[in-house]
Amino acid sequence: MTEPSRLTRALHTGFHVDPVHGAVAPPLYLTSTFTFESLGEPREHDYTRSSNPTRDLFGEAVSELEGGAGGTVVASGMAASSLVVLSLVGPDDLVLVPQEAYGGTWRLFDTLAREGRLRVEFVDATDTERLTARIAAAKPRLVWVETPSNPLLRLTDIAAVSTAAHEAGALVVADNTFLTPLGQRPLELGADIVVHSATKFLNGHSDLVSGVVVAGTPELHARFRHWGNVLGVTGSPFDAYQALRGLRTLDVRWRRHLENTAAVVAAIADHPAVSAIHYPGLPDHPEHDLAGRQQDGYGALVSFELAGGRDAVARFLDGLQLFGLAVSLGGVESLVAHPETMTHASMSAEARERAGIGSGLVRLSIGIDTAEDLVADLLAGLDRAR
Ligand SMILES: *Cc1c(COP(=O)(O)O)cnc(C)c1O
């Protein structure tokens, strides 16, 4: 038989690893500590903060999908970003961060910079020419990339940014939460490190919070494992067990997410209550061509603006049956969020304005429900919002 695909290998991670009972699914090792064989003879694992067999399997599977050298599983997506920053950046180092980064990421860098622990510059990561020129001039330590962005789904050219960053001696970190490794593989495009909020599509069931750092080289992976233990940010084995279980269906979920989102976008784009729609799959999206080059598909997030502002948003939301009003995304269920007051409330008002997040903006995370039902629910809401 030929070598199985990366997807097959990843989704088989941990099957048939139980030598005692031959369990098909991997055992869940709920233990804080492991005995030594004898004095001076530790086993493979000695303490769960540093490593745990169940948690390591989830890291391996995500790394396999990303084409990485290893995955460190941590307590949340923000723990993943914190681990990268705390293990690589010093007080004199500059980090370039997209101005419309995930709200928590924006707050992490803003807070660390205010306390003098690093230097940060928030940049327009969609303007490739200006960004690459800034990288060459400023010589940052890290260039942070989050593409598609949240909530406007603008794209950053990962290959172009990576080339410029490497010429300037910088490392590129890509937050790949929105597309999963099935939709985009930043390491193949030149990035050095990938971070995930596994809370979202990787686990896919909205029942835990988790994060993964995937390193492009064994040296970086060793560094993240070391610092994960030093800082104590590693994730719980139970959550990793659940997340690996969720990951096994990622491919089938992802296909349905994409199919449903395309159906929703086609149905709502021309509704009179909608003054703008943001989705990389639309031909008039500013980075539509780039999406075709660097992504497989267009993702399961879509945002749009209601011409009637915040009042229209309230009317739209009041009566939706199938969309929960909640932050987060990437679960089997569909969610709706109002970025100004929810996901991006931790940003300053000026930063929000610069990022283009206004009162009428709504973000949808499209689940794996039946597309016709989602469309009917949304169209009824848009009629109320007129
Ligand atoms: C949710 C999210 C994070 C943070 O992850 P948590 O698991 O909530 O800590 C980071 N980046 C993106 C793009 C996210 O959507």
UniProtKB/TrEMBL annotation:
The gene is metB. It comes from Pseudoclavibacter chungangensis. It catalyses: L-homocysteine + H2O = 2-oxobutanoate + hydrogen sulfide + NH4(+) + H(+); L-methionine + H2O = methanethiol + 2-oxobutanoate + NH4(+). It holds the Pfam family Cys_Met_Meta_PP. Its cofactor is pyridoxal 5'-phosphate. Belongs to the trans-sulfuration enzymes family. InterPro entries: Cys/Met-Metab_PyrdxlP-dep_enz (IPR000277), Cys_met_metab_PP (IPR054542), O_succ_thio_ly (IPR011821), PyrdxlP-dep_Trfase (IPR015424), PyrdxlP-dep_Trfase_major (IPR015421), PyrdxlP-dep_Trfase_small (IPR015422). The modification N6-(pyridoxal phosphate)lysine is found at K200. GO terms for molecular function: cystathionine gamma-lyase activity; cystathionine gamma-synthase activity; homocysteine desulfhydrase activity; methionine gamma-lyase activity; pyridoxal phosphate binding. The keyword Transferase applies. It is an enzyme of class 4 (lyase). GO terms for biological process: cysteine biosynthetic process via cystathionine; transsulfuration. This is homocysteine desulfhydrase. Its EC number is 4.4.1.2. It comes from the Bacteria. Keywords: Pyridoxal phosphate, Transferase. The lineage of its organism: Bacteria, Bacillati, Actinomycetota, Actinomycetes, Micrococcales. GO terms for cellular component: cytoplasm.
